[in-house]
Design goal:
The chain is of the alpha/beta class and about 600 residues long. The protein is about 45% helix and about 10% strand. The chain contains 20 helices and 16 strands.
Length: about 600
């Protein structure tokens, strides 16, 4: 092989090509010039073209030597071209169709990549030691709705900043601004607090229920000290806790404008109450402080009580829904003895009990100021406690509003009724939910006979029955000065409604009547409807909700409204009854008739 003058190479497998000529062109050889240009001892190539039609073609072997190589090569090329059987014309047609489609696909792919590069948000830079996520541009979280694109998050952030800017503009433009429930948190408060500094416009602002914590309260430092216009600050519903109360009080030590501070439901405990007590000792501008529904116990009550003798400006103290108990009430009583400024004391829901009431009434009796409002609702006061309350009522000359709602006084209410005969200051008294029966309400009725001061009487949620309704109605026919009478959930039934209706024929003071949930049915509604036909210049509002009234009752009321040309009623509530569309239609027609005939509007609620 080495000494032979002829060299040969067999190619058994070559890639498919569009034509034999094209295959040679890609290899850089010109088959027509092989005969003249291939020099001696050069390799002779035997092209093999594999067609789809023929899985395999026989190998064509071409040999060259020093003599006659040119002729043989020409012959071999022509034979290979004939053996391939690949026409040139169809190949050109296929190429002319495929090439534009391929070019279009390539250009589309490139443009897509360019658009994707510019439109996709950039992933945050990571340190060299961190592994890059395969899903850059996406924030992943197990929280529902938190797997957001950064572009969307940025949009939300822009919208939040825009809203904060609008809030800031409001703070600089209006005297009263309510931003409750916006949930802007600590960061939002830091942004908005700047608008309060040296603000000469806003006087009242509410930041309640915004997720503000103790850290956020620090935003007021350096701001409230320079504000001389803000009078009302509401931070209720924010979990600032004791730490936040401490920070806020330190800031308000140097504030000379805020008169009302609302810190209801803010998780303040005894330590926070202690800080507020120190504020009351030094601040001389606060008039109202609200600490309802917190976690203030006996210790906190003691701290606040200790501040009362040293403060001569506080008017209203709200401590509803805390944990003062009997000990807290006892401590508060001692503080009240030395205070002259307090006008309202709200202690609803503190489980004070009879012993606590005894101490508190003693302290209020020695109080040198003029207390006008006392809220003792839901404090487990029984018959014994009612005695202490009655003794205070007899001596008080300034008390205007008394709430004893939801205690357990029962028919021992007679002690309070006797005290009301001597009292000439109380205008509103709430005795609801005290398990009072007909005997107890009869005692109250007798007190009203000689008392022209009481204008609002609440005896709802007591099982007084038809007899109690009769006792009260008989007195109110011609006596008393009651303008608002509330008898809801009193079990008076249709028989009791008959007594009330008879009373309305003669009474000329009652303007608001509440008879909800008394089982009046159609019979009771018809009795009341007959009283509406009579001219009553006082009655303007009647509530008959939850009374199982059906269409017949509705028809009776509708006819009464049409019959009375001088009707003064402007509101009738018939909600939560069994009135169908027919009864509703009758009432609507009656309302339209009254409007057309008297030009008076009557609101009827279904």
């Amino acid at each position: 092989m080495a000494s032979s003058s002829t060299s040969s190479l067999n190619l058994h497998s070559l890639p498919k090509a569009s034509s034999g000529f094209g295959q040679w062109r890609r290899t850089g050889l010109n088959p027509e010039s092989l005969g003249s240009s291939v020099s001696r001892n050069r390799l002779c190539l035997s092209p093999v073209v594999v067609l789809n039609r023929s899985p395999r073609l026989p190998v064509i072997k071409a040999s060259y030597n020093s003599e006659g190589g040119s002729k043989r090569s020409s012959r071999v090329y022509k034979e290979s071209q004939a053996a391939s059987g690949f026409p040139n014309a169809p190949v050109q047609q296929i190429a002319s169709s495929v090439l534009p489609l391929g070019s279009f696909a390539v250009v589309t792919f490139v443009l897509w990549k360019v658009v994707e590069k510019f439109m996709s948000p950039k992933a945050p830079k990571t340190s060299a030691g961190e592994n890059k996520s395969s899903s850059q541009g996406v924030k992943w979280s197990i929280g529902a709705g938190t797997n957001l694109l950064q572009g969307f998050a940025a949009k939300v952030d822009r919208e939040a900043k825009q809203r904060l800017n609008e809030f800031a503009k409001e703070l600089r433009s209006f005297r009263s601004v309510d931003m409750s429930g916006c949930n802007f948190g600590d960061e939002g408060l830091f942004f908005l607090a700047e608008s309060l500094g040296y603000n000469q416009t806003v006087e009242e602002v509410s930041f309640s229920a915004n997720g503000i914590t103790a850290a956020g309260v620090k935003a007021f430092d350096g701001v409230l000290q320079s504000n001389i216009m803000l009078k009302v600050l509401n931070l209720s519903g924010n979990p600032i806790g004791d730490e936040g109360a401490k920070t806020l009080c330190a800031t308000l030590m140097e504030n000379s404008s805020i008169e009302i501070l609302q810190l209801n439901s803010t998780d303040i405990g005894d330590e926070g109450a202690k800080e507020i007590a120190e504020l009351l000792k030094r601040n001389s501008t606060l008039r109202i402080i609200e600490l309802n529904n917190n976690m203030i116990d006996y210790s906190g009550f003691t701290s606040l009580a200790g501040a009362l003798p040293e403060n001569n400006t506080i008017r209203n103290l709200h401590l509803n829904g805390n944990y003062g108990g009997a000990l807290g009430a006892n401590a508060l009583a001692k503080g009240l003895e030395g205070n002259k400024s307090l006008r309202e004391l709200h202690l609803h829901g503190n489980s004070i009990g009879d012993e606590g009431i005894r101490a508190l009434m003693a302290g209020l009796s020695s109080h040198k100021g003029k207390l006008a409002l006392l809220d003792l609702g839901n404090n487990s006061i029984a018959a014994k406690g009612a005695f202490y309350v009655a003794e205070y009522i007899k001596r008080s000359k300034s008390l205007v509003w008394l709430n004893l709602y939801m205690n357990d006084i029962g028919d021992e209410l007679k002690k309070i009724a006797d005290a009301l005969k001597q009292n000439r200051s109380i205008a509103t008294i709430d005795l609801g939910g005290n398990n009072i029966h007909a005997e107890g309400v009869n005692a109250i009725a007798q007190a009203l006979k000689d008392n022209a001061v009481i204008t609002t009487l609440e005896v709802g949620y007591n099982p007084i029955g038809p007899d109690g309704a009769k006792a009260l109605s008989e007195i109110l026919k011609f006596h008393g000065n009651v303008k608002t009478l509330k008898l809801g959930w009193c079990q008076i039934a249709a028989k009791g409604a008959e007594h009330v209706a008879d009373m309305l024929r003669y009474n000329n003071t009652i303007s608001v009547l509440d008879l909800r949930a008394n089982g009046l049915r159609d019979e009771g509604a018809s009795c009341l409807a007959r009283s509406l036909k009579v001219v009553n210049e006082a009655l303007t509002s009647m509530d008959l909700g939850f009374n199982e009234i059906r269409d017949d009752g509705a028809f009776a009321i509708a006819q009464a409204l049409k019959a009375n040309e001088d009707v003064t009623v402007t509101s009738i509530n018939l909600g939560n009854n069994f009135i169908t569309k027919f009864g509703q239609s009758a009432l609507t027609d009656a309302r339209d008739h009254v409007l057309e005939m008297t030009e008076k509007e009557v609101e009827i609620f279904f």
